[in-house]
Amino acid sequence: MPKIKEKRMEQIRALENVFEWTEYNSRSLFPIGTWNSKIFQNEFPIVLELACGKGEYSIGLARLHQDKNLIGFDIKGNRMWVGATKAKENSLNNVRFFRAYIDHLDQFFAEKEIDEVWIIFPDPQLNKDRKKLTSQKFLELYRPLLKPGARINLKTDSPELYEFTKEVIEEEELILHRDIADVYKECPNDPELSIKTYYEGIHLKKGRTIRFLSFSFD
């Protein structure tokens, strides 16, 4: 392991705005249902960014919405260190980060605890439909954790993932709220969709089209 990565992994364990939970067989369970009451200590909506990477979107949304609680969720602590450190340096008290596998999401959130989900440029998992974060498998994981009407937002440069997700929405009879085939052509001034990650900048320089879907179970 490179020294800088090793150092970040050590430092991230000491950051107050980061939770790590990789001992899934531990008898000490995470206290689900306490995000508002004990962790954020307010009643603001809980917004989750899955596969958050460096947490750029979580930070961007936290700056836009001081009345929302953002949680960046990912397993890669080296990248998460960047976002967690930046949030701390900028006194963004409405952001937390959680290092764990997304498959175990139901071990960290109570039923109907999450108000909104963002999935930003995830690995499209070409030819691996079950691993896509908008597959039926993952939607069934999210469903009980989301409040009624909670939206799932997908922003991607992958036409394959975009079309796959639209098919899932239709097959599962979900409610499609927004379908944007070209974000910067159709919605150039949308403050939430204008947040750019490092990788999005690379995609845009290559001339790739950015797509967006927003949908809910009810």
Order of helices and strands: HEHEHEHEEHEHEHHE
Give the rounded overall mean pLDDT: 93
The fold-level CATH name of the largest domain is Rossmann fold
Q: What does the radius of gyration come to?
A: 17 Å
CATH superfamily of the largest domain: Vaccinia Virus protein VP39
Outline: globular
N/C terminus separation: 45 Å
Low-confidence stretches: none
Main pleated-sheet profile:
8 strands, mixed
Summarize the structure in words:
With 218 residues, this protein is α/β, with parallel strands linked by helices. It has two domains: 1-19 and 45-99, Rossmann fold; 101-218, Vaccinia Virus protein VP39 (Rossmann fold, 3-Layer(aba) Sandwich). It is built from eight helices and eight strands. Strands 1-4-3-2-5-6-8-7 form an eight-stranded mixed sheet, sandwiched between helices. α4 links the parallel β3 and β4 (95-99). α1 (3-12) crosses α4. The termini are far apart. The mean pLDDT is 93.
What is the topology?
Elements lengths: L2 H10 L5 E3 L14 H6 L5 E5 L5 H9 L4 E6 L2 H13 L5 E5 L14 E7 L15 H7 L3 E11 L2 H13 L3 E6 L2 H4 L11 H8 L5 E6 L2
Which descriptors would you attach to this protein?
218 residues, Rossmann fold, alpha/beta, 8 strands, eight-stranded mixed β-sheet
Task: Give a quick precis of the structure.
With 218 residues, the protein is α/β, with parallel strands linked by helices. It contains eight helices and eight strands. Strands 1-4-3-2-5-6-8-7 form an eight-stranded mixed sheet, with helices on both faces.
